[in-house]
Structures are given as C-alpha cells and as structure tokens.
Amino acid sequence: MTHLSFEEITEDDLKDLRSISIKTFKQTFAAQNSSENVSLYLRNKMSIKQLKQEACETNSKFYFIKKKNKIIGYTKLNFKGSQREKMYINNGFEIERIYLITEYQGVGVGKKILTKIFKIGKERGYRKLWLGVWEKNFKAINFYKKNGFKKFGKYNFLLGNDIQTDYLMEIDI
Fold it and tell me: Percentage of the chain surpassing pLDDT 70?
C-alpha cells in the first residue's frame, strides 16, 4: 500500500467533503436501510450548510484521506466539548466519522488511518480514543475489535426516521 496523506479540510473543500461523505455513506449503509431514511439523513447531515457548520467548530477537525492525491476517504475527530459523549473528562477524544471507499477497505489502509489518528490524539495530550459504530456494521465492529477497541456502552443514533443502536467502543492510546 502506497503512502497515504491526511489533509485537514478547509472551507474551500466542502464540496469535495460532501461528495466523499455521500459516496462512502451510501456504500456503507444503503443496502441495509431504506432509501427514504438514507436520503433524509444525507439531506439533513451532509448538506454544504451542515458540513460548513461542523467544519467551523473549534474542537472538531475533518481530514481527507488521500492516496496519490485522490480522496479515498475522510475522518472527523472531536475534541473537548465537541464530543457527543463527555469522554473528555477521562482524557479521551472521539472519531465521529471514519469512512473509506469500499475498494480501500480490508487492505491495510484502516490500520494506517488509526495509527495517524492515535498520533494526532497523543500530540494533543489525549490518552483515550472512542467512537460509536452501528450494531449491524459487523465489518467495522470486527475491524475495531481486531485493533484493540473494547465495547463500553451504547447510544441511539437517528438515521432518517429510524432510531438505531450504536455501540460505543474505546481504546487507550
């Protein structure tokens, strides 16, 4: 696997962010959810307006994951009070989103991304990383378990009009 780059997203990148967000979300979830719920979620959560608001949040950072200058995925990290759960009390930070185009899954890219995210967290003084993953996303759950994450709880996630359960998983970094 050739070198990957992590590039922090700026306001000028919002169209590309929206494009990769929609593509990877559909690849990951469209087959197991109604098209109405997927469309509603994408309209509400992946609009340029919504992404701009999230990108301007001081304690959140989006990064493109690139291979040979091609965007193959992205991640959104939340720090301090921007986290959805108050894990910062325990010196943790959150991966809110981490998505890769399907063809780059299962070939070692995910491990490299986690290594980079661990490095970002350590540089900021964090000792714990956590995330939420849909209980039916078995591929992702297995990936996180294989890489040392442990389940510690769950919460509800609204996909369109469907209330789903996400497992909360954490790792010491």
Answer: 97
- Predicted confidence at residue 6, as pLDDT, reads 94
Adjacent-strand bridge partners of 5:
66
In the chain, DSSP assigns E strands to 4-8, 60-67, 70-78, 92-100, 128-134, 150-159, 162-172
- Specify whether 144 is catalytic: yes
Contacts of 76 (CB under 8 A, 6+ apart): 54, 60, 61, 62, 63, 95, 96, 97, 98
Residue 85 has pLDDT above 80, yes or no: no
CB 3 within 8 A of CB 36: no
Catalytic residue among 41, 63, 144, 167: 144
